[in-house]
Amino acid sequence: MGGKPKVREFEQIEIIDIKNDETLRNNWARFIHTHHYETHNDFYESWIANHPRRTIEAFSNEKYAARFIEPHPIPKDVSFTELWSWYSPLIEAEKRANDLKGS
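Predicted structure:
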């Protein structure tokens, strides 16, 4: 993110913090272009938690193409080992897609 908010019209910022929206808006004003931000006080409500490894794809599909992608939220209350296992199929799919692009 470079430059003043006026020249960053297509950027979106997601802020996860327990502070209220007004405080966060004021604190992050130099990074936010007009209304291109969201605040969440719970990580599990965020785009990144509901569309892991596909956050930008899901956001742009919904906001720009009006195609809504079902959330695939990360599991709560699991061990790191269980979390790694949960992420493995996503990472493997990315590897396969990258291999196909390279062919």
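Summary: The first helix runs from residue 21 to 27.
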